Amino acid sequence: MNDRYLKALRREPVDCTPIWIMRQAGRYLPEYRASRERAGSFLSLCKTPELAAEVTLQPIMRFDLDAAIIFSDILTIPDAMGLGLSVKDGVGPRFERSLRTRGDIDRLPDVDVLEKLGYVMSAVRMVRRELSGKVPLIGFSGSPWTLATYMVEGGSSKEFRYVKSMMHDSPHTMLLLLDKITRVVVDYLKEQVRAGAQSLMLFDTWGGILSTTDYVEYSLESMSKIVSALKSDPETGVIPITLFTKGGASWLEAIADTGCDAIGLDWTIPLQSARQRVGHRVSLQGNMDPTVLYASEEKIRAEATRVLSDFGPGEGHVFNLGHGIHPGIDPAHVRVLVDTVHKASAR
Ligand code: 1CP
């Protein structure tokens, strides 16, 4: 069993630095595109456990990665809350209904995650069985704030006009929405662990669009409640949790204060300075600029080596990109990255 990913999260010695890649199962892989074609759509790929399990394992079979992440999407939660998700090519995710008023939020149903999101748990169980200990499996959710941005805007956004208006003009309504999402996320992550997830990650993709005071109140607070709820439950207490706020470099100390095990970093902060600020308390995940994978193999090797030496000697580093891999990346470049990280970091 390759457990260097779990060891690095606990800041225990490893034979070399573990690596996994955000969005490692995705459109840059021809076998993913083939499975998606067979599924007919992105959503039926997510909702058919056999196919979700199949694409989860594709990057594990192709590369020497140190963790698998269950193939799903953060938007399965708003879908389960009745907003009607569709994901169209070239358009991205859209909801049939968006949440704009207090009434919209009051009417949100309680979600039985086993009933509405049981397909995710089935995929988790299948993947664990098929991995049979090869590498650990990561479960995940979007952060409540990030999910709220999609639910209020009705899809992807550039300006975040409606969600920020709600936050500024109706803070109680915003907090009520975040609390409702938080409860579902806690149940969802607990069930993923019951089904076999060995580590958990919260994707706070849009925390970085907030001011410091708003970040603490509207994003970090609900992530902190999730960490506390999981850590205080005997069934999930030992499961490591990684918090990733894209654009969150200025708030690392506050993120570490939640009691999470690791902080995911985008590429805007040197690992060394992140480590000086919080390194003895948490592990660090990251943080190569994903666009380096468009460059030559030499450049990829040089940059991977630079990121490793930026972290420096000692434990607690999980190598990753600073955000998801782009669909246009050549899979051969991913192999160069994975092999370089393992070779250059061998103890
Ligand atoms: O056509 C396709 O195949 C759809 C592309 C795609 C993929 C491959 C989407 C739609 N989601 C996914 C998978 C996915 N999404 C995973 C799989 C596990 C992995 O291999 O890592 C994960 C963890 C996510 C998480 C996710 N979805 C996030 C958080 C991470 C991040 O990238 O910031 C977000 C913001 C989403 C929303 C979403 N789903 C899909 C797209 C294109 C988007 C982004 C939309 C936007 O930019 O607002």
Explained architecture:
The protein is of the alpha/beta class and 347 residues long. The protein has a single domain, classed as TIM Barrel. The chain has 16 helices and 9 strands. The strands form 2 sheets. Strands 1-4-5-6-7-8-9 form a 7-stranded parallel β-sheet. β5, α12 and β6 form a beta-alpha-beta unit. It is globular. The two termini are 19 Å apart. The mean pLDDT is 98. Coproporphyrinogen I binds next to β3.
Offer a concise description of the structure:
With 347 residues, the chain is of the alpha/beta class.
Mean pLDDT: 98
Q: In CATH, what is the class?
A: Alpha Beta
Sequence stretches where pLDDT stays below 50 over 5 or more residues: none
Q: Name the CATH architecture.
A: Alpha-Beta Barrel
Remind me, CATH topology?
TIM Barrel
Bound molecules: coproporphyrinogen I
Q: What is the structural class? A: alpha/beta
Summarize the amount of helix as a percent range: 40-55%
Number of strands: 9
